[in-house]
Amino acid sequence: MSFSQSAIDNHIFALDIGTRTVIGLVGHMEGKNFRVIAEEMVEHESRSMFDGQIHDIPQVAEVVAQVKSGLEKKTGLNLNKVAVAAAGRSLKTVRCTAELEHDANKEIELVDIRSIELAALRTAHRDLESGNIADYYCVGHCVITYLLDNMPVSNLFGHRAAKIGVEIVATFLPVSVVNSLYAVLHRVNLEPVNLTLEPIAAIDVAIPASFRLLNLALVDIGAGTSDIAITRDGSIIAYGMVPMAGDEVTEPIVEQLLVEFNEAERIKRLAGSCDEMAYTDILGATGNITKKDFLPIIEPALDRLADAISSNILDLNGGIPPKSVFCIGGGAKAPQLADKLAQKLQMDPERVVMRDRSHLRNVAFNEKSFLPGPEGVTVVGIATIALTRMGYEFMSVRVNSSEYKLFNTREINVSQALGLIRFDPRNLIGKNGKNLKFYFNGKEHLVYGELGEPARIYINNKEANLQSSVKDGDDIMVIKAVDGRDASARVSDFIPQSSEITFKLNGTDRNWRPKALLNGAEAGPNTLIKTGDSLEFNANPTVGQIAQAYNINVIDKILINGRISNAQDKISTGNNVEIISPVENITGITITVNGEKLVLNKTKAIFVDIFNLIDIDTTNPQGFLIMKLNEEQAHYTDPVQNGDSIEVFWSDQETEPF
User: Cα(98)–Cα(94) distance, rounded to whole angstroms?
Assistant: First the structure.
């Protein structure tokens, strides 16, 4: 039978994942009674949980798997959904109210009641966050009273009113506690259909609603934590938690008798019904201890535990003891614990009692239970409260076609929803490609990587973002982010397509194609550049490079377009370069034009010849052309001699004063 079929029959699978044991049961409603049809209990082989907190997820999951498998064999059901409860470690509670307008002509329905309770839960969550307390989940709530047009009532269903309200106590646990519980269930393919707090579950069956008019305290003493709930005036008014329980009593037995922890647990249990207990220590030696000698070993631990529980009860109950204290859980069976609680609370010992399954109302069993004591109460409450409140704490959403159950106790957005299902955040934000940094002609150069593309998000086929609100039943599609490509570059990216230059060298036409050097070695245009490389490229060679290329090793004089130059000067297309060696017969007339030494390659020259060496366009007048030869006004046909000083420039006056 599939789980969906069993759900129709009101079957529920409940798990109580405790510090020492995991208890599971399967049951269903028969009229007003809850019938347990099968149950299973497996102890942890090692201390994989401390103080109600899961420490070793794989080991706890293995024990849960054993319980699940045992129940499936007993019932023939395929169990893939489960109701669970969390211990009250780091518990925080918020008491708040909410009100909603309502059509006074319509009867109040269950959906209206659910809406008002959820509104109160969201208010509680905002109140918690306003105190700078984040990353807490609501794991359950209890209604203190309903309001019908501002008048208190016990049940809104069927009434008519213009305004409805509710006052609740909401309980919150850290995200780490809840996520570890989720992780265990995920490993064994179980989907949570209801999550509550252990004392909320326990009180649902241990203290009937008719008892809650009295000021009572329920203490669920497990192995790692003691969870507390207080009732008064028909409601549960407070919850609390003490981070110590039965293990606090077991640890001194380990130390005093030198036994393993599981052996110490066995001795502690026997002490409740035996006058003498046999044991085997870690050395293999056997021994016996009487109850009279055993009680002094655990008495200091019992005192500490009773002190902590009684102090918490008094804090929650306004400093006064309740009328009665009901103790459940396996730790409640510790010898003399109930008496010590009564003493600390200054109560009649008969008012501090242990509640086992025989006191549960409207609960039946198919067979004799192997858990008749107080340790079997909470798991029944987990099941019964799930049947009555299933769906209050969860919402269903689809993410990329997969269905998930999320907490439905506050307004959540896409970002929070994806966090709850452990969606990889790296798929939401595309990383930019890596930049390429290298050196080009001695200077640092940076090529930027491609920008990443962020994820695209849609809710019900409409474009959304990480801050968009998510509701029950929403279909979320996340198209993963795309990382940008890393930057890349080739030598050709930094070389002009037409980089060849032409010039004259000593009267001969020459061509020069510059070479790219990558890390000192010649590189082709398709060579890839890597981070840290050094690329050298100069489109214009120096005279020294030209001389080296054409094996001119000894240089006496360099002229570029007639100007005296040096080996570091660069050559451009169209230049006339003369590299004169010492052995050559140097001819020409050396003159100074506008302060610059030039050479006229002639034995005889006139003034007009200098215009071949200077950058003055006489066809495009810029004013009056002033020509001076040795500081005297010159004419185009004046002879020019070696050593002459010449000035040529444009002026806005026809003549310049001498």
Answer: 13
Pairing of the two strands 475-479 and 394-399:
parallel
User: For residue range 302-343, what is the model confidence (pLDDT) as tens digits?
Assistant: 999 999 999 999 999 999 999 999 999 888 888 899 999 999
Task: Give SS3 for 473.
Answer: coil
Whole-angstrom distance, CA of residue 73 vs CA of residue 38: 10
Cβ contact 226:308 at 8 Å: yes
Q: For 229-263, how does the pLDDT look when each residue is reduced to its tens digit (9 = 90+)?
A: 999 988 888 888 888 898 899 999 999 999 998 89
- Rounded CA-CA distance 185/199 in Å is 21
Residues in CB range of 507: below 8 A, 6 or more apart? none
Q: CA distances (Å), 53 to each of 262, 278, 306, in order?
A: 19, 32, 21
Cβ contact 375:329 at 8 Å: yes
Q: Are 641 and 590 in contact (CB under 8 A)?
A: no
Q: Which positions ≥6 away from 281 have C-beta within 8 Å?
A: 257, 258, 259, 263, 287
Residue 632 DSSP SS3? strand
Distance CA 176, CA 134 (A): 12
Q: Delineate the domains of the chain, giving CATH numbers in brackets.
A: 94-169+209-354 (3.30.420.40), 395-479 (3.10.20.30), 489-586 (3.10.20.30), 588-658 (3.10.20.30)
CA distance linking residue 519 with residue 535, whole number of Å: 6
